[in-house]
């Protein structure tokens, strides 16, 4: 009756979302009077999960699972859930987890609520709050099935330390060939760069920057903040920046701790995509820019003056802290 | 190749989001509905397969009669025929169950559904379809080519992309990138005229169990006003980012 979390790792090391999910799982387990079991795939040191409240780890080590495969990974999670007789499976909102979650849900005859924010509102009936309408509303959803799957929205809960044994147990689920009918041929991943998905801070630029040649100062600011760079839709449409940097409703979603928008007016579709970010700092020359209505902090003025100056101040701050 | 494109009928991205009946229902009053953008990218790729490789493209929606205008728009863009499953969708699993029946009856080789709808943001229908039909599955698809029954597809991953090989029958969760925004089509007059005479078949739903239900909606709490700084007090900005917001 334990809760099962899928603790994601990359190259053997846990992603931050694994710790967030463990923290969340621990809190839900306390409310339900149960424990947290994690299933891991090719993670090297699983003891780390104990620090975030995981009691038991089903450790899967298998070369066939060297690259992500949605059906095979879903199969692993389904078998782990069956083995432990779990009633609640928790997944994160990484691209990979969003890919496998519905497969897990159907496989377990479980109702699935995605984009969940916060702890369950009640456990009987089981109700959760989730993001809907592209962050413009919340939807309270009730899951009626015996087994339930939740997808926790990114950066919506936080990482909290607690205690757990993280007692590791080798687990060898049976995999069949049909699981591997989609094969990974190659992976292209920007290396040495903070990605928008993993970043704690995102620095984003809009048309107000006037041209791709002016991105240097944003990259400098991003480097100081350890941030990923992003851009608005017009900027990617104009070809100033690659599509992979486009954030907004039809681009990548952003749910960082700090989102810095420079020269972006704040079209409703842009806001929808970044609104999950906790703190928004807007730099714009137009005091009437709609972005200021949803911003926490703002600087009205010339970005070409403000950004380098802010960068110097931040550098000085970082040097002393 | 028979292609099925699953179309969600969603409020335009600029719509005001309000709720009625004790916050239990979305207020459609004055709202313009459109083809879900993630579905429209997939539809456009399907039309490319139709024009380049002779594919037949069917569009399908699970919804009431009010969604037919959206299906007609998809026909005007170039789909060959349309199906409407006559039911108000209750959750993602309900929709997937209905669509799985359409797929089984129609023998489609390739099914493209948006990876997520912009209203409920469930992001579960394509994956559930794959689980229910047993077909291969590529989510967050940003490129796809088909040669016979072999498929090359690219999916977006966090921080990059991944090239995959697989085969038909295949379920795809589509998004921007499967075609570019500039390739989206606005229906022309001829398209709109011919769409009127294309087949739009109404199918009654199959029964299914209730897995989840929407209890109510809430709007985010109003935001407190922005704190403004000038270029001359950026020190104070750095201070609040550290001490108040605690983000640096």
UniProtKB/TrEMBL annotation, chain A:
**Residues reported to bind FAD:** 207, 263-270, 284
Q: How is the cofactor bound?
A: Binds 1 FAD per dimer.
Q: Which cofactor does it need?
A: FAD
SMART domains per the record? ETF
Q: Name one GO biological process term.
A: fatty acid beta-oxidation using acyl-CoA dehydrogenase
Pfam families cross-referenced by the UniProt entry = ETF, ETF_alpha
- Domain Electron transfer flavoprotein alpha/beta-subunit N-terminal spans what residues? 3-184
**Which UniProt keywords are given for this protein, alphabetically ordered?**
Electron transport, FAD, Flavoprotein, Transport
UniProt KW Cell membrane keyword: no
Identify a single GO molecular function assigned to this protein.
flavin adenine dinucleotide binding
Whether Lipoprotein counts among this entry's keywords is no
Q: What is this protein called?
A: Electron transfer flavoprotein subunit alpha/FixB family protein
Sequence similarity: Belongs to the ETF alpha-subunit/FixB family.
Automatic annotation (TrEMBL), chain B:
Q: Which GO terms describe its molecular function?
A: electron transfer activity
User: Which domain of life does the UniProt lineage start with?
Assistant: Bacteria
Kindly indicate whether the keyword Calcium belongs to this entry.
Answer: no
- Record's keyword annotation contains Zinc-finger: no
The UniProt entry, under InterPro entries, shows: ETF_a/b_N, ETF_b, Rossmann-like_a/b/a_fold
Domain named Electron transfer flavoprotein alpha/beta-subunit N-terminal: residues: 23-212
* Keyword entries, A-Z: Electron transport, Transport
Q: Kindly indicate where the leader peptide sits in this chain.
A: none
User: PANTHER family annotated for this entry?
Assistant: ELECTRON TRANSFER FLAVOPROTEIN BETA-SUBUNIT (PTHR21294), ELECTRON TRANSFER FLAVOPROTEIN SUBUNIT BETA (PTHR21294:SF8)
What does the similarity note say? Belongs to the ETF beta-subunit/FixA family.
**Protein name, per record:** Electron transfer flavoprotein subunit beta/FixA family protein
């Amino acid at each position: 009756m334990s809760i099962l979390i899928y603790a994601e790792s990359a190259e053997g090391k846990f992603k931050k979302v694994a710790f967030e999910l463990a923290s969340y799982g621990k809190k839900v387990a306390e409310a339900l009077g149960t424990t947290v079991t994690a299933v891991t795939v090719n993670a090297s040191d699983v003891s780390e999960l104990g620090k975030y409240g995981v009691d038991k780890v089903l450790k899967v080590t298998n070369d066939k699972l060297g690259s992500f495969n949605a059906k095979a990974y879903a199969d692993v999670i389904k078998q782990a859930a069956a083995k432990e007789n779990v009633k609640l499976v928790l997944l994160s909102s990484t691209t990979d987890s969003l890919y496998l979650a519905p497969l897990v849900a159907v496989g377990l005859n479980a109702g699935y609520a995605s984009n969940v924010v916060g702890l369950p509102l009640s456990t009987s009936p089981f109700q959760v709050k989730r993001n809907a309408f592209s962050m413009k509303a919340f939807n309270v959803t009730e899951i009626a099935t015996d087994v339930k799957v939740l997808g926790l929205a990114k950066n919506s809960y936080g990482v909290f330390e607690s205690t757990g044994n993280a007692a590791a147990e080798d687990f060898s689920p049976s995999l069949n060939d049909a699981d591997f009918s989609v094969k990974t041929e190659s992976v292209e991943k920007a290396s040495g760069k903070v990605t928008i998905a993993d970043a704690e801070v995102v620095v984003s630029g809009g048309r107000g920057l006037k041209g791709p040649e002016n991105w240097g100062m944003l990259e400098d600011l991003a480097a100081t903040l350890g941030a990923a760079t992003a851009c608005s839709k017009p900027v990617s449409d104009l070809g100033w920046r690659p599509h992979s940097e486009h954030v907004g409703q039809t681009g990548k979603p952003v749910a960082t701790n700090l989102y810095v928008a420079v020269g972006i007016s704040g079209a409703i579709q842009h806001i929808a995509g970044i609104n999950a970010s906790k703190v928004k700092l807007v730099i714009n020359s137009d005091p009437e820019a709609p972005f200021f209505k949803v911003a926490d902090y703002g600087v009205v003025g010339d970005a070409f003056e403000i950004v380098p100056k802010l960068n110097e101040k931040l550098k000085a701050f970082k040097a002393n802290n | 190749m028979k292609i099925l494109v699953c179309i969600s009928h969603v409020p335009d991205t600029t719509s005001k989001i309000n709720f009625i009946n004790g916050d239990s229902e979305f207020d459609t009053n004055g709202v313009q509905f459109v083809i879900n953008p993630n579905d429209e990218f997939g539809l456009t790729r399907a039309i490319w397969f139709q024009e380049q490789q002779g594919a037949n493209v069917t569009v399908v929606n699970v919804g009431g009669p009010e969604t037919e205008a959206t299906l007609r728009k998809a026909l005007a863009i170039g789909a060959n025929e349309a199906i409407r499953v006559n039911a108000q969708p209750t959750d993602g699993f309900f929709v997937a169950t209905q669509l799985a029946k359409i797929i089984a009856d129609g023998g489609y080789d390739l099914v493209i559904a948006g990876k997520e709808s912009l209203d409920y943001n469930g992001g579960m229908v394509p994956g559930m379809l794959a689980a229910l039909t047993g077909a291969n599955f590529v989510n967050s698809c940003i490129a796809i080519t088909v040669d016979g029954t072999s498929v090359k597809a690219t999916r977006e991953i966090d921080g990059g992309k991944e090239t995959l090989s697989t085969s038909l029958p295949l379920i795809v969760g589509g998004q921007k990138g499967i075609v570019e925004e500039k390739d989206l089509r606005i229906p022309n007059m001829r398209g709109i005229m011919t769409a009127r005479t294309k087949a739009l078949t109404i199918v009654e739903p199959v029964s299914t169990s209730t897995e989840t239900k929407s209890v109510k909606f809430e709007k985010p709490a109003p935001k407190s006003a922005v704190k403004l700084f000038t270029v001359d007090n950026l020190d104070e900005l750095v201070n609040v980012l550290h001490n108040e917001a605690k983000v640096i």
